Amino acid sequence: MADPKPTDATGADAWYFCLRLLGARYAFEAPLVTEVVRLGPLTRLPAAPAFLPGVFTHRGEVLPVLDIGLLVGHGAVPIRASTRAAIVHCGPWKVAVVTEGVEGLVSIPRRAIEPPPAESSGVAEFLSGVGRDRAGTVAVLDLPRLVETARARAVPAGGPAA
Amino acid sequence: MRDPSELDKPKKKPARAARPARKAGVPAGDALQVEAFLRAFAAGEHGAARLDVASFADPMLRGIAEAANAAADHAVEQLDTSRQRVQVVTAGVDEAIEAMIRLVIQGDLSGTMRLGVSDAALTPLIAGIGQVMETLKRFVTEIREAALQLSTSSAEVLAAATQNESSTSAQASAIHETTATMEELKGASHQIAENAQMVAAIAEQTLTGAKQGEGAIKSFMSSMEKVRHNAVEVDDAIAKLSKRVERIGTVVEVIDEIADRSDLLALNAALEGAKAGEAGRGFSIVAAEMRRLAENVLESTKEIKNLITEIREATHAAKEASDGNKRMAAEGEQLGGNAMTSVSGILSGIQETSDAARVIHLATQQQRTATEQVVQSMSEIEEVTRQAQTGSKQATGAASELTKLAERLAELVKRFKVE
User: Fold this and answer.
1) d(Cα A126, Cα A51) in Å, to the nearest integer?
2) Which of A19, A80, A105, A106 is the mutation pick for testing B, counting most B CBs within 10 A?
3) Secondary structure letter of residue B146 according to DSSP
4) What fold characterizes domain B185-395?
5) Does pTM surpass 0.80?
6) Which residues in B lie closer than 8 A to residue A88 (C-beta atoms)?
7) Is A35 in Cβ contact with B268 (below 8 Å)?
8) Residue boundaries of the structural domains of chain B
9) Taking residues B413-419, what's their average pLDDT?
């Protein structure tokens, strides 16, 4: 449960952080997540791309908010008072990913992760595989690549603080 | 006029006869002869021999004797003439009287008297008889007219008496009928009086019923008022209930919020546990348990919220029903008020009916008394009418007798021919 990395090669169970997004179940590596918060009032950034609806202050830090839906070309994820966001660390980047709901941690054997369908459009671009658990199918996102892509796309608009 | 002149003639005879008597005395013999002759003539011996004139010597005496003879002759002649006239007149008078008697007996007054004898002396008589006849004729004519009038009048009297009789009998029968009708009227008024009494009794019963109805309406109205009052209380209760439910909703929101925060905390705790590796395993189990509890709480609050929604709907329905109750109660009260007004009208109407029935009862009793009096009077009138009927019958008999008499009189008068 707590040692995904050592069992990585042997194909033992790994922890994934599962959330609902775009009406489906998505997951990414649990260690990337530092905390789950309620998304407080956002401050819109001028000239920011649509997939970055604003920034918000958390424990003294100003964190950008990432809407994966808009990033992959789907509709925006609705933001309410009860909307939860997962604060993730991807290398030097720390962003808040907007969710439609958080399921929590799920344990999926790495062998059970199948390769993603051969599509390169929309969200499929950022999939690292498709897993399966008791609740059904779950799409595993390659979050670091996704965050990187977001950062890259956001750069022309203005240099991010690194 | 003629009579006196005729009567004068016999008077001349003594004058002439006296003359020779006065002339006698001159010659004794002859004079005595003349005297005797004249005395005899005066005594009525008209047929005695005339004096022999030739024997008288004395010329004076002769002349006297001649004159005496002539006078005697003349007197005799006159006497004869008078006798004849008397005879004629007597015959004429007889004839006239006879004719008159005959005419009277026969009753023929139409013609004029005609006599076979005509003498100036009879003229006054004939004229008198004519006058008598005329008078008789006039009388007969008048009597005839009177008889005719009498006949007509008596016929009229008879007709009137007959009519009177029939009228009286009609009157009698009418009175009889009237009496019968009055008897019926008496019966009818008795019936009316009984009916009026019955009406009064029924009105009394109805009055009692209507008063009970009035009481029922009053209690109905107080019930309606209670219903309205209760509906207001129900309203208050519903309002309180609604407030309580809202309060529960608020509390549930708080619980919800707490459960959500608990869930979030548990989630983060699980993440921390995962980071801690094997050391955080027990921590993760507790966190997962906490999440489940929080989810249970959320499910429960969801249920509570649904129940609150249902309760809200139910209270809304109850409010509407109670509003309906209030409206109905108000309508009921109004209807009760209307019914009350109607019953009040009925009560006064019944009171009037009762009074009217009583008045009718009294009036019909008076009517009965009056009718009885009328019946009494009618029987008296009937008696009088019966008497009048008898009288009018007698009058009719008398009138018919009178008519017969008038006819007889007319018959009798008819015997006299007037024209």
Assistant:
1) 15
2) A105
3) H
4) Helix Hairpins (1.10.287)
5) no
6) none
7) yes
8) 4-106, 185-395
9) 78
